[in-house]
Specification:
Elements: H1 2-18, H2 24-27, H3 30-36, E1 42-47, E2 52-59, E3 62-70, H4 88-94, E4 97-101, E5 112-113, H5 129-148, E6 153-158, H6 160-171, E7 179-185, H7 197-215, E8 220-221, H8 227-236, H9 241-254, H10 263-269, E9 277-278, H11 279-291, H12 301-308, E10 325-329, H13 338-347, E11 351-356, H14 366-369, H15 373-376, H16 378-388
Parallel strand pairs: 3-4, 3-6, 6-7, 7-10, 10-11
Antiparallel strand pairs: 1-2, 2-4, 2-5, 8-9
Helix pairs in contact: 1-8, 5-6, 7-11
This protein binds 2-acetamido-2-deoxy-beta-D-glucopyranose (4 copies).
Signal peptide: 1-18
Keywords: Glycoprotein, Hydrolase, Lipid degradation, Lipid metabolism, Signal
GO biological process, one term: lipid catabolic process
């Protein structure tokens, strides 16, 4: 904590002289945002088979048409609400859907466990998108089915959210029957097509970064009370932050589309993003990038043998993802480039649609935060839901 104080002192000078004002939407949590934009919001506690306690939000609608939204890495369910009246939650509710918003383990809303204390027990952070898929997503689906009395729900995932669905449906194929349609936004299974420059370098340097973090017994990254999140918030809420954090960082890793993320909105966003996850999550992505395969976590030879009965981790069998899948992709997405999504497309046995957004500059984050998603994305989503559910 003393390091935190030192950094705070150093950065506070600049902070005091250049802090931009954070709008109300940057300070409200999910429920606060939902209420502000006229929605009814209920909170549900979901306990997973491996003991994680998750918070799921519901904006109630027609009980026969439940839709589950799952966010990406270092993000939370806020992603689907933060555009206020122009957000996906509002669009779905207007169309009568019963909207359920997930928050995965490790995020501020779901940072609890029956036995482990995330601040003390390293075991808590022993997860990647693998466990998120196997245990979080399955628990959420079963919970919604139970509450609505339905036999199937529709699902929408973004980025890591899609990886988690593919994991679940390939390893526990019985879940295919519980999903009417999976709308996969900026989907990720094959990562090695990624062209996002600073991210590529970070992936290559990751084994060293990982070692360093492990030395300091650091398992959580970017969580609300971590040093790195604290620094990020100070730097990226500065009046120059749009130049540094958006033009300099966010757009260069996700693809340039400045029109869709205006400065005023950035100052709301920085109150919600990034959110916490485990370093194992990054490690798993680093591995599938290096191996050029969508496969399970690589521990080491002995552990792999004990866990998988194989010295190398098995690939996820995408041919078992038999639920209907619609892939929706952006031509300027540097995290999940078209080439990788096309490869994924060839592996999915029940692909119903492959949609490239009609916006040349559509990047990885427009799917969540774009200013005009009402025009180029939501009509696709509502059409897909209408057509296939
Ligand atoms: C959101 O839209 C509704 C109606 O469409 C409007 O009444 C309300 O004022 C808007 N809320 C905000 C905060 O802009
Ligand atoms: C992490 O989880 C894996 C797989 O569930 C398990 O084999 C391993 O022992 C765990 N590691 C730690 C440090 O708890
Ligand atoms: C939901 O779960 C409860 C308790 O686990 C059970 O009693 C109930 O029958 C379930 N309802 C449905 C519709 O499956
Ligand atoms: C482990 O793999 C070997 C060889 O691939 C196979 O013969 C054996 O039956 C497997 N053991 C288990 C427990 O699945």
């Amino acid at each position: 904590m003393s390091l935190k104080i030192v950094v705070a002192v150093i950065l506070s000078v600049e902070y005091v002289y250049g802090k931009a004002s954070i709008p109300e939407d940057g300070r409200l949590d999910f429920k606060g945002l939902a209420t502000k934009y006229g929605l009814k919001c209920e909170e549900h506690e979901v306990v997973t088979e491996d003991g994680y306690i998750l918070t799921m939000f519901q904006v109630p609608g027609d009980k026969t048409r439940p839709v589950l939204l799952l966010h990406g890495i270092i993000d939370t369910g806020d992603a689907y609400m933060i555009r206020g009246n122009a957000s996906l939650v509002v669009a779905l509710v207007k169309n009568g859907y019963d909207v359920w918003i997930g928050n995965v383990r490790g995020t501020e809303y779901s940072r609890r466990h029956k036995q482990f204390n995330p601040d003390i027990h390293m075991e808590y952070w022993n997860f990647s998108f693998h466990e998120i898929g196997l245990w979080d997503v399955s628990a959420k689906i079963d919970y919604i089915l139970n509450k609505t009395g339905q036999t199937q729900i529709s699902c929408i995932g973004h980025s890591q959210g899609t990886s988690a669905f593919f994991v679940l449906n390939s390893i526990r194929p019985e879940y295919n029957e519980k999903i009417k349609l999976l709308v996969a936004l900026a989907p990720i299974a094959f990562l090695h097509y990624l062209t996002a420059s600073p991210v590529k370098e970070a992936i290559m340097a990751w084994p060293y970064i990982y070692k360093l973090l492990k030395t300091y017994r650091k398992e959580e990254i970017l969580g609300k009370n971590t040093l790195e999140r604290y620094i990020f918030e100070i730097v990226c809420s500065h009046e120059n932050a749009y130049k540094w954090c958006v033009k300099g960082l966010l757009m260069s890793v996700n693809g340039y589309d400045l029109q869709e993320l205006e400065p005023e909105f950035w100052y709301s966003l920085v109150g919600h993003y990034p959110a916490g996850t485990s370093i194992k999550c990054f490690s798993h992505y680093q591995q599938i990038w290096t191996k050029k395969k969508f496969c399970q976590f690589d521990y080491n030879k002995d552990m792999n043998l004990a866990i998988y009965n194989s010295s190398v981790p098995p690939e996820y069998d995408l041919s078992k993802v038999t639920t209907r899948v619609a892939l929706v992709t952006g031509a300027n997405d540097l995290m999940a480039p078209l080439k990788g999504v096309k490869r994924l497309k060839r592996h999915l046995p029940n692909l119903v649609e492959f949609i490239v957004l009609n916006r040349e500059t559509a990047n990885h984050i427009d799917f969540l935060w774009g200013k005009h998603t009402n025009k180029y994305l939501f009509p696709h989503i509502t059409n897909l839901l209408q057509k296939y559910t």
